[in-house]
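Predicting holo structure, magnesium ion bound.
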Amino acid sequence: MPDWLANVVGPDATFWLAYLTNGAHQAFYASFGYTLAAAVFGGMFAILFGLGGAALRRSRFLPVRAVGAGYALIVRGVPDVLFLLFFPLAFEQAVEWVIAQGVCTPENAGTGAWPPCPDANIFFSTGGYLAIACVALGIVYGAFASSAIHGALDSVPKGQVDAARAFGMSERQIFWRIRIRQMWIFALPGLSNVWMLLVKATSLLSLLNIPDIVNWAGRLGAPNYFPRAGLVHPDWRWKYYLALVVFYLVLTWASERFFRWLKRKAGHGLIADDAVAA
Amino acid sequence: MQPPILEIIDLHKSFGALEVLKGVSFAAQPGTVVSLIGSSGSGKSTLLRCINLLEQPDRGTIVIDGEEILTRSADGSRPPIDQGKLRRVRSELGMVFQQFNLWSHMSVLRNVTEAPIHVQKRAKAEVHAQALALLEKVGIADKADAYPNQLSGGQQQRAAIARALCINPKVMLFDEPTSSLDPELEAEVLQVIKVLADEGRTMLLVTHNMKFAREVSDRIIFLHQGVIEEDGPVDEIFGNPRSPRLRQFLAAGGAA
Ligand SMILES: Nc1ncnc2c1ncn2[C@@H]1O[C@H](COP(=O)(O)OP(=O)(O)OP(=O)(O)O)[C@@H](O)[C@H]1O
Ligand SMILES: [Mg+2]
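Done. Tokens:
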């Protein structure tokens, strides 16, 4: 901190500013990026899986419909904590199994039970785990989104579907050119609920050893008696967790605003955004 | 006499136990306007919807410009027609609905160009030029970029007529095109239909407006409880109705 600033704010504030901007705290602030990234990309995957799931549920073929319905039913019933623990591990071991089929021979077999040989052992970086977490969140909340979208696809007035048929559109064209385009405004209330649930679920990232905000808050708030490691303080976790509570409240508030704006826009906006290419 | 452009032979349609069409047959010559009249529930809409196969008829044949569309036979020995043929048939018939049924997420212009470009696969530039000319013709060229919910009912119906015209249909089908419009808006839509009639378009028109039917039609078909009760030239139907039911219907002003 420059001296002039230190002089302006006084010794106490200088001390706190220095403390709150030390290396560990900067890492803590950066970890908010993980949470936000997980929310945004998890949300995108949820929309994709939701659209896919809804499309499956509308298929002409019973087995395909059953897969779509099964996805919505089963995944919605599994606790997100459990799925977030299960999916990355299952994914990692599946990848290792596939690699092992290629590289492992009786000669280079490892001693442990898994993976079959050291060459097949893979490590995901934090970024890798984050990506897997986003997909996992997408799968879980995509199941909820698929229900919202599935219902909304039927909200297109029947007369407009009749008109599309009467003008020779195929069922596929009707789906992509009419239903999907009009679905958003009807699906929005459901999708905003799903988004709120997904935002809350981002607090589970630490389960996957991602150094996220929950993880850092726990570390920074833990009692510290070594002057060398910065400020000496007792158990301050509640202060850090309180900061997270405030963060999530702000995020919720911002999301509410965003969805209200989106709804107002989609009312005529779904329409206006789709302006004519003359 | 020319061969008919549209011929319906022995068309049957039931909804569950309710038999709505009980063997309807008629033919329309190219360039003529045929009006379908009849009391509510007599099966007029169902007939129109069967012609472009929005409803699958139970039995009967539809011939459009010499091409036979055999619908499913009573014993199920004939399979339903295939999707490709179905779409081709539909794009030869321009349908105008009572409730307009414009696609609400598209501008008026896109409503008009949608089927020609994406179903008939015609060149964009040509379709746009035609669409603009048609909007001009129905008097809403200035609304090309507006969305359906920004238009009055009369303007929406005129847009819907332009949409139907733009596929270059062999036959135009109108199902009570003005029944959900106020009188002053009805007039502007009827005006457009009148122009089309005078141009010699082949049209099949379901209407409760007897005055207009009389003015615009070459021929009138009176449908009663799923059968054609009377079918003849305008003057005969209105001037000298034979069936007592038609007389009763006309005496009531063509309502109910
Ligand atoms: N999809 C359907 N399912 C069951 N019944 C139907 C269906 N569509 C029409 N009907 C019935 O078929 C009969 C004829 O209906 P239709 O709509 O063809 O009459 P309409 O002559 O067009 O009457 P309106 O002048 O009131 O429009 C009515 O009794 C109606 O209830
Ligand atoms: Mg009707």
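The pocket of adenosine-5'-triphosphate (ligand 1) is lined by residues B 15, 18, 20, 38, 40-46 (CB under 6 Å).
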